[in-house]
Amino acid sequence: MTRSSIKEYLNSNPESVLVLDGGQGTELENRGIKVANPVWSTIPFVNESFWTDPASKDREIVKGMYQDFLASGAQALMTVTYQASFKSVSENTRIKTLEDYDQLLSRIVAFARECIGDDKWLVGCIGAWGAHTCSEFTGDYGAEPAKIDYLAYFRPQLSAFNANKELDMIGFETIPNFNEIKAILSWDTSVISKPFFIGLSVHDNGELRDGTSLRKIGEYIKSLGPKLNPNFTLLGVNCVSFNHSHDMVKSLHEVLPDLPLIAYPNSGEVYDTVKKVWTSKGSQTKTWDDIVKKYLDNGARIVGGCCRTSPRDIKEIRTAVDNYGKQ
Ligand SMILES: [Zn+2]
C-alpha cells in the first residue's frame, strides 16, 4: 500500500489521530550510541562505516529502534536529523561542502525509509536555531533575536528536505523564540514546499521559553490570514514537560480551534544541564491514558513522545488513541 499525502489524510479524516514515534536521540543513546557531541544523534550517520560496513552495529541499532517504534503502533516516524543543520555539521564533522551535506541527508532519509517501509509517513526533523547554541530550552537568543538570519541557517536543510520525495512532512522542533516562529511563518511555498509543523518549546508555566504567551502566538497566526504558507499543517508542542503538556495543547486549541495540533512531550524526567544527565525528578504524575485523552479533547491530530520516551510509551499512546480517537 502506498501512503497518501499526510495533509490530505488529516483533512479528509477529520476525526482520526495519528501516532508518532518517540524520542529518537535518547532512544539511540539507550541502545548504546554515544550521542554527546555537537551533532548529537546524527553522529552515527557521519561515520562512513555506517554506509560501507555490512556489519555496522550502529546500522542495526537504528534499524532496531525504528522496528520497535513501528511494532508499538507508530504511523509517522522521524529522521534522526535534529542537530543536522549545515552549520552544525560543517563546523563539527568531516563533512564540509553542501554537496557532501546533501548526500548525508539523502542517505539518512533513504535509510529511514528503508527501515519503515512505504506505507508509513516520514517526517524530516529540523531542530531549532537554538539547538546549535544549546538555547532551545531557554529561548535566550541573545540581544537581537529579530536580527538573526534564520533563513540562512535553515535553508540548506530545508532545500534538501523539500527536494526529497521520501519525506512526507517537515517538522520544526523545539522552537523557543517568537522571532524564530515569525521567521518560519514568513516563508512561502518556495522556501517550504512540503507540509510542515512547528513544535514549540514551552515552559512549565505555559509560556514559550522566551516568555511569549501561547495566546499571542495564536493571535499572530490568525492575523496572517491568507498570507500563511498553505503548507503550514500543524502547530503544537514537543519536548515539553509531560505533566503540563495538556494545558499547553488546551491553550493553543482555545486560540486556534480549527488548526490541527501535534503533541509529543518528553518523558517527564528533567534534564540537568550542569551534570548533563536526565533525572527522574518530577517524573510522570499522570498516565499517557490521562493526557492523550486531554490532547484529543483539544484538537490534537498527531501524538507521540519526545526525549526519553521509548517504544513502551508509544504503545501506551497507541492504546489511548485507539480508546479515545474516533476511527
Ligand atoms: Zn526532545
UniProtKB/TrEMBL annotation:
Keywords from the named record: Amino-acid biosynthesis, Cytoplasm, Metal-binding, Methionine biosynthesis, Methyltransferase, S-adenosyl-L-methionine, Transferase, Zinc
Places the protein is found: Cytoplasm
Residue span(s) of domain Hcy-binding: 6-321
Principal location: cytoplasm
SUPFAM superfamilies in UniProt: Homocysteine S-methyltransferase
GO terms, molecular function: metal ion binding; S-adenosylmethionine-homocysteine S-methyltransferase activity
Catalytic activities: S-methyl-L-methionine + L-homocysteine = 2 L-methionine + H(+)
An individual GO BP term: methionine biosynthetic process
Binding site for Zn(2+): 239, 306-307
Cofactor entry: Zn(2+)
EC id: 2.1.1.10
GO cellular component terms given for this protein: cytoplasm
Job of this protein: Homocysteine S-methyltransferase involved in the conversion of S-adenosylmethionine (AdoMet) to methionine to control the methionine/AdoMet ratio. Also converts S-methylmethionine (SMM) to methionine.
Record's protein name: homocysteine S-methyltransferase
